[in-house]
Amino acid sequence: MSEMYINHQTKIKLGQIGVLLFLLAILELAVRGGWISVLILSSPSAIAVKVWQDLKGGELWSSLQTTAMEFSLAFLISFTLGLVFGILFFRYRLFGSAVEPFLLAFYAAPTILLYPVFLTLFGLGSGAVVSMAVVFGSIPIMVNVSVGLAGVEPTFVKLGRSLTANRWQMFWKIMLPAATPTIFTGLRLGFTYTLLGVIAVEFLTFSGGLGKMVSWRYFIFDTEGLFAGILFVILIAALMNALLRRTEERIRKRWT
Description:
Helix content is 85%, strand content 0%. The protein has helices spanning 2-32, 44-56, 59-91, 93-108, 115-122, 126-150, 154-162, 167-205, 209-219, 223-255.
């Protein structure tokens, strides 16, 4: 059964690779044939050459270092605020019911338009980037922590009480493991929006990092460099999301 599952998964992966290669080939032909202007979109081969040049150069690594520092700080703050306020929203239901609608409304609004306010408060630099990214990333973590804890089956809670578990044991041994899937959904959303916030503010404010690199290449019409920068951002997001999923699987295995 497991071998059949592995073979099925392998076929899916091979199919995905085949579709990707087909689309890249079509795009290469379209650009080389002049159907798509090189000012709008570069050929995959030209982007690949630029990616290799970036990997050998210093601009990418210095930009990546800046973005990694800003993202790490922003996600750490987002995670801490999300966890603390999510637990508070669950623990004090009236407080949570009063605050959560405003958070969701704020979250649904185009928050990026507030970046001039953050520039005024924190100046042009990492402070504005990190603070905006925290606003993007902390809200989904708060909401999902609260929803996850509130959605724990009452049977689990009754079981804990019947075993005379104290409040700390109830939280760590029962509530948190049961709420793990919802909490990790919030962490993945928080991660994604924190990274988007960092890149977006760097792009708009030209303050440094990968966002600045992509912005500069956009303004000088370096199409290959623009898409190479975007590709680096996509790869980083994909790798980190995969790492989060692997971490979730390991934690759930330990608790089951």
